[in-house]
Write a structure and sequence with these properties.
The complex is a heterodimer of chains A (about 180) and B (about 400).
Chain A (H helix, E strand, L loop, with lengths): L1 E6 L12 H12 L5 H8 L3 H13 L3 E7 L10 E9 L8 H7 L5 E6 L6 E7 L2 H12 L5 E8 L5 E2 L2 E2 L14
Antiparallel strand pairs in A: 1-2, 3-5, 3-6, 4-5, 7-8
Chain B lengths: L8 H5 L6 H9 L4 E2 L11 H12 L12 H15 L9 E4 L1 H13 L5 E6 L5 H7 L3 E6 L10 H7 L4 E6 L12 H13 L3 E5 L25 E6 L12 E4 L2 H14 L5 H13 L1 H24 L12 E2 L10 H12 L1 E2 L1 E2 L11 E4 L4 H19 L1
Parallel strand pairs in B: 1-10, 3-4, 3-5, 5-6, 6-7
Antiparallel strand pairs in B: 2-8, 7-8, 9-12, 11-12
Helix pairs in contact in B: 3-10, 4-10, 5-6, 5-9, 7-8, 11-13
Classes of the chains: A alpha+beta (about 180), B alpha/beta (about 400).
Chain lengths: ~180, ~400
């Protein structure tokens, strides 16, 4: 289990919008949200207080959206099914895709909603306890919505890597334990 | 059969690594978490791997020139110039070797013979002493101390010079201490070297790994020193290419022309695939080095801070990727500390004595590991230290 952190990407991170320290801090905690303020302070050569202030600020500003564990549900033996659903949507005057995206995100089954470029408009990630539930969700909830023109459902079969973390075996450290 | 009588006396006399047994235990023990490696955890940047694959696809699989490909030597010359302000001719002053290690071997064998004294500042990497002995030379150690930031001082150097002294090995940035030599330290040492007419073999394999100060300065850049310095460097540490076995020597042509003879008879030429990969590394991977060094630097601060908070004195390392904390406060010897730690908490460190007698009282901690790995190892070391107090 690996802890990661969710935050809202806003503006560029190349240094103008965020001071350098904030940027480094975001990089560190988005890889590992379990690091203590003392550890972060040591790594960044700043004080614990500065780290605490900076994190509080990032939370208040809504940059840091939350903290959760990155779980491999298969290893946990959890019987769940995840699908990526492509939606083609008719945009509305003045609202574009905003209206439909906001409606879709209110369903508790929906994990993620992204506006996409390319061959379709919205990508929706849904997790349910079996294939049928996902299919029913698409046919009963998404497809009938006014502006939805078409759906394509892709079931996720195996996770190799997520959030930058490897989910499969075979990527272990192959160095000897001691060398000069 | 009595093999003893067949084996060379010099080879037999080489010190067996006294801690070999300890390492074997560490290697075989289940669930060991090691901070014992001397190589990067990063994979070789993929563009470098890709360049190697491309060279294989078009069948670049033959010997190269004994010196290494001219293309690579030109890139090395550019690199030495842009990084350290040093001018070397790709035709005559640069030789590509099988890792830095073979470069050290060829350089020492070309210079050292029976009766020659070779100065070796300790603690240091383990190969200089045995290679000097195999060449019939006499290793003369110079102890460096935490009070001097493990730097080589002019006075310590001067003290150990004899009429037979020919060569100084200068291993900075240093494995295992993480010490570096600044410009002014090098100037002081150079003055002694010039006065006593010595040669220097400067092992700069960790040159890219310096932190929180100016970049690495080579002793060859000190006035008067280039003509008496052979630099050994390579790709293993800077580009995470340990397994590719590729290094190089830079130095005056009259010295290299003898080193190349040894290389030619012993090695023929460095691995061809690795040479093609190395060209890509030197041409396009400076930013990869910077990314890796920035990551090492954060780990370095985390680990130094962690050991200090555990109550161990820890000299501030400014180079390589090791820290060298003192364990004298525990009352244990380096080897006792490492053995007890391995058995009690299954953490593998390297005793300071593996790098010379004056490493007694210290342990080498490598931070070539992920943050999670480092934190878990430090947690266990903390428990071990608590148990010693209890």
């Amino acid at each position: 289990m690996v802890y990661i952190l969710l935050f809202r990407w806003e503006g560029n991170l190349s240094g103008k919008v965020w001071p350098e320290m904030k940027e480094k801090l975001i990089r560190l905690v988005s890889k590992n949200a379990k690091l203590t303020n003392a550890q972060l302070a040591a790594m960044l050569a700043v004080s614990e207080e500065e780290v605490a202030t900076c994190i509080a600020e990032l939370e208040r500003e809504g940059v840091i959206r939350g903290y959760h564990a990155l779980v491999d549900a298969d290893r946990a033996g959890m019987e769940t099914v995840t699908a990526l659903i492509e939606l083609k949507v008719a945009p509305k005057l003045d609202l574009g895709f905003e209206d439909i995206a906001r409606k879709i995100m209110t369903f508790p089954e929906v994990e993620a909603v992204y506006l996409m470029s390319g061959g379709f408009d919205l990508a929706v990630t849904v997790t349910a306890s079996n294939f049928k539930e996902v299919a029913l969700f698409v046919s009963h909830r998404l497809a009938p919505m006014d502006s939805v023109l078409s759906t394509a459902t892709h079931f996720l079969l195996r996770k190799y890597k997520e959030e930058g973390v490897c989910f499969i075996d075979g990527d272990e450290d192959d160095r000897r334990s001691v060398s000069f | 059969m009595n093999y003893e009588s067949f084996l060379s006396a010099r080879a037999k006399e080489l010190k067996p690594s006294g801690i070999r047994k300890f390492f074997d235990i560490a290697e075989q023990m289940e669930g060991v978490i090691s901070l014992g490696v001397g190589e990067p955890d990063f994979k070789t940047p993929y563009t470098i791997r890709d360049a190697a694959i491309r060279s294989l696809e078009v069948g670049k699989t033959r010997y190269t020139s004994n010196w290494g490909t001219l293309e690579l030597r030109r890139e090395i010359a550019n690199y030495m110039n842009r990084r350290f302000g040093l001018e070397y001719s790709p035709e005559t002053d640069i030789m590509v070797t099988v890792g830095g290690s073979e470069g050290i071997d060829a350089a020492i064998r070309a210079i050292v013979g029976p009766g020659d004294d070779v100065l070796i500042p300790e603690p240091c990497f383990v190969c200089y002493d045995p290679i000097v002995r195999l060449a019939g030379g006499n290793p003369v150690t110079i102890d460096t101390r935490a009070e001097d930031n493990f730097r080589l001082t002019a006075s310590a150097l001067e003290e150990r010079i004899t009429p037979n002294t020919k060569l100084l090995i200068l291993p900075y940035p240093n494995n295992p201490t993480g010490a570096i030599m600044r410009q002014e330290d090098l100037e002081a040492v150079a003055e002694v070297i010039l006065r006593h007419n010595l040669l220097v073999l400067s092992d700069e394999i960790y040159a890219e790994m310096t932190y929180g100060g100016p970049n690495h300065v080579s002793i060859a850049s000190i006035p008067g020193m280039k003509e008496r310095t052979v630099i050994v460097n390579g790709f293993s540490k800077a580009y995470s290419m340990t397994g590719w076995r590729l290094g190089f020597l830079c130095g005056p042509e009259p010295l290299l022309s003898v080193m190349i003879k040894i290389h030619q008879y012993a090695i023929m030429s460095a691995p061809t695939t690795s040479q093609y990969a190395a060209v890509e590394a030197l041409r396009r991977c400076d930013d990869k080095i910077h990314e890796m060094v920035a990551e090492y630097n954060m780990r370095r601060r985390l680990v130094v801070d962690g050991f200090r908070k555990m109550g161990l004195d820890c000299f501030e390392p400014e180079g390589a990727f090791y820290i060298f904390p003192s364990i004298q406060s525990t009352g244990l010897t380096s080897e006792e500390f490492c053995e007890k730690l391995l058995h009690a908490q299954k953490v593998a460190l390297v005793p300071g004595t593996a790098f010379g007698a004056c490493g007694e009282g210290y342990v080498r901690v490598s931070y070539c590991y992920s943050i999670d790995h480092l934190l878990e190892a430090m947690r266990r070391i903390g428990l071990f230290l608590d148990s010693l107090k209890g």
